From TrEMBL:
Organism name: Myxococcus fulvus
Classification via InterPro entries: Dipep_AS, Metal_Hydrolase, Pept_M19
Name by which UniProt lists this protein: Membrane dipeptidase
Signal peptide stretch: 1-34
CDD domains, sorted: rDP_like
Keywords: Signal
PROSITE patterns: RENAL_DIPEPTIDASE_1 (PS00869), RENAL_DIPEPTIDASE_2 (PS51365)
Gene3D superfamilies (UniProt xref): Metal-dependent hydrolases
Amino acid sequence: MKECAHPSRRPEVPCVNRSVLAALVVLGTSPSLAAEPAPVSAKARAIHDSALIIDTHVDTPLRMLNEGFDVGSKPPNGQGHLDLTRAREGNLGAAFFSIWVEPKEYAGRYTHQALRIIDSVHTAVERHPDQMVLALSSKDIVAARSGKQKKLATLLGVEGGHAIQNDLGVLRDFYRLGVRYMTLTWSNTNEWADSSGDITDTTVKHHDGLTDFGRDVVREMNRLGMLVDVSHVSDKTFFDTLKVTRAPVIASHSSARALTDHPRNMTDEMLKAVAANRGVVMVNFFSAFVDDDYRKAYAAMSAERGAALAAVEAKHKNSDPVTRFRAQSQAGWEWAAKVPRPPLKAVIDHIDHIAKVAGVDHVGLGSDFDGINSAPQGLDSVADLPRITEALLARGYTREQLHKILGGNLLRVFRDAEAVSRELRSPPSVQR
């Protein structure tokens, strides 16, 4: 399940099956698409094109693995959220491709499945060396965008600490394969960290935040130079993490709880804590995370929607995997379309709120594209990212501030984490 681990026990929380959504975006765009928005102004476009745009969370790898999707081919009819053509149209400079392992289906095989997903990203980079490059450092991101032939800096982020199967050696191996952040939990509490997704579920064994091993995970990530991602974690896990980490943290795809009361979002206290840590919060585009009316309406359908999707799953339990995948996907999109998409203003409000509470140096973009089935109007793919620049420009943000929000803040945090890693890896005699 995508956004919460136990939808039947948590009807107030919208639940989305990430594997389903990956196929949903392949099958087509939401039936609730609004009319074509007005063109982006020349001034906004010029600012946008001069920036290094970084999106810290896209779920395109599941499309690659489950559908054989070639990111170098633009699908017909505007299907999907990300491909190389639309990445160029939106001037996307770098993207963290999510390595997400469904915790129930792959129980006991988390690491193996993660390796399969990682392989799908490496394969895409190898297939399109003229347009993509595997980025392993902050310098690699900048280098990918230099010169005439700008390439998409392709990075990896493991979503959910269960993927390491309680083994720091696996964590190090992930780093060697190019993983540059790990979300400590997904919507499921693991053996060493509590999640926001099941924190009220009394059948789940919780730890009151991080365990001792969880603290070791954070310390090893600091040593490696792997960004510590606090999206999805419980509030207690969040604050425990900030007590341990020596490097700035990121929230790769989270929004503001003050505006949309969802446990996946961050309170103002948490936003201020991230700022004090020198970290950055990357705003998620999912409609239920940025619009409270959408969240409530979608949650109100939870029981009926869950029964309908279970019926589709039962009907296709003996079908071939692709057919089953697509049937479940189509049903999910149809249910998502029952709730009108919020306006673009919803995402802009969250960016603006975080900038005001935490500071403009501590906010960025983490779309969750190809892993969500509803985004605000006007955000149908990465090609639409300039609309965010235009909307923020209209609110008075300067060129310098926009460059920070669009990618500069994440790049700074990445550099700071690399500096901490160099210090921790240096011999004790030269450590400060």
